[in-house]
């Protein structure tokens, strides 16, 4: 997996990233203040539930950062092609570079990416050979955090005892 940092200058991608960070901050501040801390003070939930929420939130934002700055598998300017593999390479008609057969040229990033899946505006980066696993981690942690928040909301409205007036 590539360890190079990769930034894309794309206004739509920056707006999507800003929206994600806003929603993450809102959920990290609002949900614990309204649901977790009052129910913890009244003894409805344990400290483990609060810590699990913060760990899920931390893993989610860390995986977002890692997927957004990881190199997706950008091809170098002058790739060294082994003589035995030249038949598996082709010329990109957009950037006039030699690339492997399963590579694709991203019009947003302006370069070819090995085994490109798609350009994701939510991470403002291409999903390719080198960061595909990081993108899947982001999807997994986002699903875990969303499910946990949904369960907490459900428990808050239908399972837990009503909050006392001072916590309400």
Automatic annotation (TrEMBL):
<keyword id="KW-1133">Transmembrane helix</keyword>
<dbReference type="GO" id="GO:0006612">
    <property type="term" value="P:protein targeting to membrane"/>
</dbReference>
<dbReference type="InterPro" id="IPR001594">
    <property type="entry name" value="Palmitoyltrfase_DHHC"/>
</dbReference>
<dbReference type="GO" id="GO:0019706">
    <property type="term" value="F:protein-cysteine S-palmitoyltransferase activity"/>
</dbReference>
<feature type="transmembrane region" description="Helical">
    <location>
        <begin position="43"/>
        <end position="65"/>
    </location>
</feature>
<keyword id="KW-0472">Membrane</keyword>
<dbReference type="Pfam" id="PF01529">
    <property type="entry name" value="DHHC"/>
</dbReference>
<feature type="domain" description="Palmitoyltransferase DHHC">
    <location>
        <begin position="89"/>
        <end position="162"/>
    </location>
</feature>
<dbReference type="GO" id="GO:0005783">
    <property type="term" value="C:endoplasmic reticulum"/>
</dbReference>
<keyword id="KW-0812">Transmembrane</keyword>
<keyword id="KW-0012">Acyltransferase</keyword>
<dbReference type="GO" id="GO:0005794">
    <property type="term" value="C:Golgi apparatus"/>
</dbReference>
<comment type="similarity">
    <text>Belongs to the DHHC palmitoyltransferase family.</text>
</comment>
<dbReference type="InterPro" id="IPR039859">
    <property type="entry name" value="PFA4/ZDH16/20/ERF2-like"/>
</dbReference>
<keyword id="KW-0808">Transferase</keyword>
<feature type="transmembrane region" description="Helical">
    <location>
        <begin position="12"/>
        <end position="31"/>
    </location>
</feature>
<protein>
    <recommendedName>
        <fullName>Palmitoyltransferase</fullName>
        <ecNumber>2.3.1.225</ecNumber>
    </recommendedName>
</protein>
<dbReference type="GO" id="GO:0016020">
    <property type="term" value="C:membrane"/>
</dbReference>
């Amino acid at each position: 997996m590539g360890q190079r940092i990769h930034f894309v200058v794309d206004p739509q991608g920056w707006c999507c990233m800003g929206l994600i960070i806003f929603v993450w901050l809102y959920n990290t501040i609002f949900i614990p203040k309204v649901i977790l801390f009052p129910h913890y003070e009244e003894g409805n939930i344990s400290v483990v539930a609060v810590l699990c929420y913060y760990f899920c939130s931390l893993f989610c934002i860390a995986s977002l950062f890692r997927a957004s700055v990881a190199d997706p598998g950008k091809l170098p300017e002058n790739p060294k092609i082994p003589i035995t593999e030249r038949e598996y390479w082709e010329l990109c008609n957009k950037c006039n570079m030699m690339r492997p057969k399963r590579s694709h040229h991203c019009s947003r990033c302006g370069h070819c990416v090995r085994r490109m899946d798609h350009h994701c505006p939510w991470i403002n980066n291409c999903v390719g050979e080198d960061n595909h696993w990081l993108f899947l981690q982001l999807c997994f942690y986002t699903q875990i955090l969303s499910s946990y928040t949904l369960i907490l909301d459900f428990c808050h409205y239908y399972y837990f005892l009503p909050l006392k007036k001072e916590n309400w």
